[in-house]
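Structure tokens please, single chain.
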Amino acid sequence: MASLPKPVRRASWPLRAIRLYQMLRPYRVAGSALEGLGGIRLLRRHAGISEFEAESDAGPLLILRVTRDDPGIVARNIHFAYENLMKEMRDHTGCDVLVPLDLIEPLGIVVLGRVEAPSLQDLIARGKATSLHLRRVGAWLAALHASFPVRPGGFDAMERMDETAYPYRRLRLGGGHPEPSIMDQIADSVEAMAPSFDGEIVDFVKFHKDIAPRSFYITADEVVARDVTNTRRRPRCYDLAHLLIEAGIDAGLGIARDKHGLPDGWYDACLAGYGQDGGGFQRAIHYAMWARMLDIYTSGYTTPKQSARFLRRRAVLLEMAAAIELEPIGDIRA
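Here you go.
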């Protein structure tokens, strides 16, 4: 597998860990989840939340610090969502979420128990991810979607066009795109497929929006999820599509890919774990996958300076797109 340069972490990251340790001093009391706190390391900052890895007498921790508006309210909602998900997933063997241990509302902090196991993203990066791992994660998603009432709704295909194919077309017409791309064919397919779905009544499920391989710890007996609390209701195909595209990107450059643009067997395994393999459902997933690819590809051009992360993801997306076997436009519209 060809490797790509990784973005350099900002020098301020260790300082953020030190600052968090100081902030938590009054809460590191005997008997608490933070007793014996140490080994704090910033993992990432995303959407106004900083994620820290740490150790304590209670065991390995994941600490979330909300830095956006209303941090106390957001932290309370995250804590409640983890508690709710833990209860709902209790009846699904082999499926779980991180355990919420503490809520420090004045600081906008949630403390979670961390699992000492590789994430699916870790396994992919090491070249050790298998179809069985994708099947188990697909089963976890099925458990999530089955844990909350399913509500019928209209498939929002044309609405998604405003977020995916149309921005891509404007990018091409405006000269912001460096050269004609295989992504043009992806856009053609998305535009052709959307009208056939728009308004169709489908099952709306609890949908996370940015589910990804990094969201799942893989143990010998369980798939344990993290960062899956920001839910809304959307067609079930979107969670699966987002997971599969992100898995394909995490796999990197220079690997063999199947007709779905993914390492061989991953697509079928994930759908088998989810419990769906019908043609109509697969067509909806293809639409959602291609739309997601356009969304990722276009979004990186909207910033004045393209990041190293975007350049890496764009290179992989082009490799994925080149491997995809697209249905002829005439057959899609028939």
